[in-house]
Amino acid sequence: METKNIMIVGVGGQGSLLASKLLGKLLVNEGYDVKVSEVHGMSQRGGSVVTYVRYGDKVYSPIVDKGEADFIISFERLEAARYAPFLRPDGKIIVNSQEIDPMPVITGAMEYPHEALEHLQAKGVDIDCIDALTPALEAGSAKATNIVLMGRLSKYMDIAPEKWEEAIKQSVAPKFVEMNLRAFALGRK
Amino acid sequence: MKKLMLGNEAVARGFYEAGCKVVSSYPGTPSTEITEYAAKYDEIYCEWAPNEKVGLEVAFGASLAGARAAACMKHVGLNVAADPLFTLSYTGVNGGLVVCVADDPGMHSSQNEQDSRHYAIAAKLPMLEPSDSAEAKEFAKAAFELSEKFDTPVIFRTCTRIAHSQCAVEQQEPVSRELLSYEKNPKKYIMAPANAITKHPIVEERTKALTEYAESCPFNRVELAKDKSLGIITSGTSYQYVKEIYGDSVSVLKLGLVNPLPEKLIKDFAADHSRVVVIEELDPVIENHCKSLGLSVEGKNLFPICGEFSQSLVAKVMGKEDKAFTVSDDQIPVRPPVMCAGCPHRGLFYTLAKKKITVLGDIGCYTLGMAPPLAAIDSVLCMGASVSGTHGFNKARGAESEKKTVAVIGDSTFMHSGMTGLANIAYNGTNSTVIIVDNSITGMTGHQQNPTTGYNIKGDPATKIDLEALCHALGFNRVRVVDPYNLKETEKVVMEELSADEPSVIISRRPCALLKYVKHAPALTVNADKCRSCKACMKIGCPAISMKNGKAHIDATQCVGCDVCKQLCAFDAICGGEN
Fold first, then answer.
1. Is B372 exposed, middle or buried (0-12, 13-18, 19+ CB in 10 A)?
2. Chain A CB within 8 Å of residue B535 CB
């Protein structure tokens, strides 16, 4: 099979590493060759962060390039627009509706582009924008936003929900399993 | 059993399986997690050394004693460790000795883009370079064998994309290994001229033997395709981009032992193919070697020296079709890294910017004091340069400069390379002011302990170096401590010490707001009726504060109640907090 590409993007500190860990476990369990690439260090301090997950029969490059992503999961609206060029023409962006002002907006040097996603949709980009924070709070913590988004992603991927649940159990500490399973279920709704 | 592993975790696993006993390192992105993962194996003694030179010398001592040992660092760390490195090439080893160095093409987290392969060439040391986590483990393990077989330290080179990417790694049982015997051997281990003169020819012979070994070693391999019109010579992560684009359709010579490079293997490969392209990130090291063999290869005439490669870069340069994609027409603001909400460095940099003080900065989270709106830093060079640089700046510009120039250096960086600069100020006499921003941790690399924190790599209690006493001992009478959350006090102390007629150290002390033990005050709120929209609170560049509907707004999910913004509001519009 052709290598599939998923990108997880957001703001440093939002918890994209757990989402990539979960995807890694899931796809290894499914028997795929998997590569996951992260960026640590300076850019984690509130900067724009990106994680790549690639899977297939044989994966070479650890990174995803422009025009290659089957899915982009974004924790924040502006970051979805920033990484939109990485999407394949037939790919899909799943984005949490949260907005976090970057420093140029905070200092007043630039405006937050509130309509950027609508403009991309008008150009034919497939964007699924959801409020992942409210279901996460319902499940028990704002920190479960990432798992709500994974629940949403699971609707578009051909892997049974039980397999996802198994991977969640393998990825989080025992005391957080129930909360994350709830978040996953709410994301699938 | 196979497990998804970061490249760095795989290197640590390789150490474990090889029976490595001692690892001494200084943290540096993207190398840090090697030592953190190694510390999870009870069989390996691991430590954070004060700097990379100390780390490599500790590893040398362990090797001398008969153990397998390693030191890990980022590329610029190898500059610090270069002194022992070059002469270790002459002494050779007893137990296998591996020097791990992680390059950072693209400068994700670094101040330069140097290519560590030049060190292997200059120090005449073998260098291994894996292409993914699976190879990282195998190569790390094999590096110790190679080290002992050829009586040489081995440099193990990775880069950001190897260090911080995961793929499946086959785990094996560790080899059981006793310490090798230690016998006094002055001719081998005392590098005074009389002995060193006899060792240099041995190093040259070793390089010849290693070159011979490179012709058929398991780290270099040829993947032949039917089509002989194009052959690609590559290594490391570039190999993955080449395979991504070409699969098995072109011949590839993949080099894993990148110093010394083979001669016959390369010549034969070139002879087999009508066009040969060398694809390597950073400098044309393999390419120049090929050209020195008289081969007409292509390389940097096509590919950039600067920055990271990717599969699409390889495709584009090699004339393959571009992929289609859609770009946003909106202006997308950049999102650079920022000092966190509640970062203790913020209050200090606000004060320095407000008083228009010249700041020679250093390497760490506090380098972010350079960013607007604070824009408080004038220079950042390398670990420790703030302290020595300030002395030089003041020597050149004299007494006026001494009253408005400071060095700013973190606690870990001060232990790494700041102390010697401080001794120089005291000894050679400028009236300089050095500010140690002590956040009780090594912050930027992800919270590693250091000699001033009172804990070791395992989190166990350790001797805590007393910074005040240390600065006194280094010749400073004036050592003041301030809490950077208190703007008034911080400004008072900074101005007093700048105008004092002798050199001084100010310790700006407050633990990193991200440390688990740091208790946060409740988030502050803005009383919109009182807010006059003057934006005074925006001058500190806190990511939790923004303007919403013309009034200041504090994001409750980010604010830790540090109260710094509250001290800037002339209208009492910011409420709450306990500090």
1. middle
2. yes
At which residue do the structure tokens 């900067």 appear?
A47
Contact of B297 with B233, CB cutoff 8 Å? yes
Dihedral of the CA atoms B254, B258, B259, B262 (nearest 10)? Answer: 10
Above 0.85 for ipTM, yes or no? yes
**pLDDT mean values, one per 10 residues, chain B (579 residues):** 93 98 97 98 98 98 98 98 98 98 95 98 98 98 98 98 97 94 98 97 98 98 98 98 97 98 98 98 98 98 98 96 93 93 97 98 96 96 98 97 98 98 98 97 94 97 98 98 98 98 98 94 96 95 92 93 97 83
Instruction: Give the closest of B132, B328, B445 to A41, CB-based.
Output: B445
Low-confidence stretches of chain A (pLDDT beneath 50): none
**Residue A11 to residue B390: CA distance in whole angstroms:** 35
Taking a C-beta distance cutoff of 8 angstroms, is the pair B560, B342 a contact?
yes
Helix, strand or coil, per DSSP, at residue B371: coil
Domains in chain B (CATH in brackets) are: 2-214 (3.40.50.970), 221-323 (3.40.50.920), 345-509 (3.40.50.970), 525-575 (3.30.70.20)
Contact B400, B381 (CB under 8 A): no
Residue B192, φ and ψ in degrees, nearest 5: -85, 160
- pTM of the full predicted structure? 0.96
By CA distance, what is A143's nearest residue in B?
Answer: B557
- Could you identify the residue written with the tokens 């009726």? B529
Write out residues 435-454 of B within 8 Å (CB-CB) of A.
Answer: 444-446
- C-alpha–C-alpha distance, residues A112 and A90, integer Å: 27
Other CB atoms within 10 A of residue B84 CB:
22
CA distance B30 to chain A (A): 7
Optimal mutation site among A6, A11, A30, A42, interface B, most CBs of chain B within 10 A: A42
Q: Nearest C-alpha of chain B: how many angstroms from A186?
A: 22
Question: Is-contact B155 B165, C-beta < 8 A?
Answer: no
Residue A81 to residue B538, Cβ atoms within 8 A: no
